[in-house]
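Worked example

This section walks through a single chain of length 194. The input is the sequence exactly as stored; nothing has been trimmed or padded.
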Amino acid sequence: MATNLTLMTTNKYIFDFAKVFLILDASLVLYSFIFQNAIWALNTQVAFLGSLFVTLASFLAYRRNVNNRLSTLEKKSEHKSLEDRDKIDEIDDPYDLYSEYEEIPEEELTTEKIKEIIKDEKSKVKRHSIKNTFTSASSFVSIYRILGYGSLVFGFFALNNNGIFLAVPFLIGLSVVPFGTLLSKLVFKKKLEE
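Given that input, the structure is written out below as tokens.
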């Protein structure tokens, strides 16, 4: 039930962002045809679509990565809760935050013992950061992102090879998605505060 609610909320935000992007893009197209020319509009649209595709591809890749990590975490917690934990432990520490650490009496803490603990914790952090790099690698080398950046580069070269590339409208078209995201965040933040 919670995943359906999360999915519905995510879809609502996606549609809200899409509305803002489409309104900004429609305004840009109107400006291009009224005050500029068709080549200007073509440059803005190629850049906008490429930028939008890169953004959507990044979103899908990171969403898939987060879902995979959550499912792995759920499997670990189910497996661990079945093995080690009883009901009282689950109530006292539902997320199993405190089971790793064992208390050491203060009289046993010497400088060598403290250095050993720090060294051990540093090795854990290093191990986890390397593991994190490999598990998140699928997000930044996903086929979605490669296709997104490929479409942006292909659009640039198609415009440039046909001699109709204009830098200013291309950059304006690229900026629609980041500017729309910023504008959406400001508008949604205001809605949430009300």
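What to look for: The chain has a mean pLDDT of 75.
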